[in-house]
Specification:
Radius of gyration: 20 Å
Shape: globular
Number of strands: 3
Distance between the termini: 31 Å
Number of helices: 15
Largest sheet: 3 strands, antiparallel
Structural class: mainly alpha
Number of domains: 1
Strand content: under 5%
Helix content: 55-70%
């Protein structure tokens, strides 16, 4: 595999990494605040810092690696991700009702985090090989088959949030690949049919309760609807400037469960207020904008689809997480990228950014000048 020199890493996209650094800082601030309420010895922070260190090294190595060589490993990476999803069903740890974790030496790892990168790479490879052809029914079904395998394995855990993330990533990528309106209608009809089948034969009772409580939180305000209700209270009480880091009543008095992961956005909104949320959104806008800019300037279709795939993963995670915090979507346990606590999620997010930087490093000088206008 060809590698760039360390000095070549300076050709990476600076705005992308600044936005990522801002989001990681928000995450560490929120995790620190949560640990204040627990009175713990910064265990979460220490684990997150270790994951950050490993992730930054991985990001730099992948950015230095030529992404053209990475395409040769896309199929193997996808197969490895599927195998890990199978293995976790037999040897994984059950946490929060889902058998989707490997726990080694006090560190937990979710194979779905690996799978979201593997699926994105596989779809990038597939779509790039057919970029000059009109998007056909075969492309829709074959690419849908790539996502159906891991989604089926995730539903056996069960992990509805992870499955929704993979399906959403695929849906965004097929939009960029040129799906036709007639195919969209067929796709929507298929989703509706699968939803009905899933409701009758697949969804567990607690997953049905989550959806019903999302539609009507008052049906179970002290149990199923408790988390979402407390999240909305936290977000609404933040005001313009926020209550101050470590001074949020919902997070510090531990009214808000899973505040370092599933509801970290609510913690930020309560303690840093509208200003903090605005800065958070601005960082995400810059991050996503740079990914789309890199996709437009990439020297080949595989590089373009790597950037589009990373954009898709981050966009879906952002949408689902904030949607759940605002009670606009069911709470499915999807992390806020680069912000929520979780070593495997942070590590794989930095791997994705490394792929985008690998594309950015290999742009032509003329492309970089044109980038100013994007």
């Amino acid at each position: 595999m060809a590698f760039a020199s360390l000095t070549a890493l300076r050709k990476g996209d600076v705005l992308l990494m600044i936005a990522a650094a801002v989001l990681i800082t928000f995450g560490f601030a929120a995790i620190f605040s949560v640990e204040l309420s627990r009175g713990s010895a910064n265990v979460f922070l220490q684990k997150q810092a270790i994951a950050l260190g490993i992730g930054l090294v991985a990001c730099a190595l992948i950015a230095a690696a030529n992404y053209h060589a990475i395409r040769h490993y896309a199929r193997g990476f996808y197969v490895a991700g599927a195998v890990m999803l199978v293995l976790v069903l037999f040897f994984g740890r059950t946490l929060n009702g889902s058998t989707g974790w490997f726990v080694v030496g006090g560190f937990a790892f979710q194979p779905v985090e690996l799978m979201k990168v593997a699926l994105m790479m596989m779809l990038a490879l597939y779509f790039s090989e057919r970029a000059k052809r009109r998007f056909g029914w075969r492309d829709l079904f074959v690419s849908g088959g790539f996502v159906a395998v891991p989604v089926g394995l995730l539903m056996l855990q069960p992990d509805l949030g992870g499955a929704a993330l993979l399906v959403g990533t695929w849906a965004v990528m097929v939009l960029f690949a040129g799906i036709r309106p007639s195919q969209v209608f067929v796709l929507l009809g298929s989703v509706a049919l699968i939803a009905v089948i899933g409701w009758v034969f697949v969804f567990q009772s607690y997953q049905k309760d989550r959806i019903l409580t999302f539609l009507d939180p008052s049906r179970d305000p002290l149990f199923r609807g408790y988390n979402v209700t407390q999240a909305k209270i936290a977000i609404g009480s933040g005001g313009f400037w926020g209550r101050g880091l470590g001074d949020g009543s919902q997070s510090q008095l531990r009214f808000l469960p899973e505040s370092q992961t599933d509801f970290v956005f609510a913690v930020i909104a309560e303690e840093l207020g509208f200003v903090g949320v605005l800065l958070l959104f601005l960082a995400f806008v810059v991050l996503l904008w740079r990914m789309l800019a890199m996709s437009r300037m990439a020297r080949d279709t595989f590089g373009a689809y790597l950037c589009i795939g990373t954009f898709s993963v981050m966009l879906i995670e952002l949408t689902v997480h904030i949607g759940a915090n605002l009670s606009l979507m069911p709470a499915t346990g999807v992390a806020l990228p680069l912000v929520s606590y979780g070593g495997s999620a942070l590590l794989l997010s930095l791997v994705l950014l490394g792929l985008v930087q690998s594309v950015a490093i290999r742009l032509r000088p003329g492309d970089r000048f044109h980038d100013i206008l994007l």
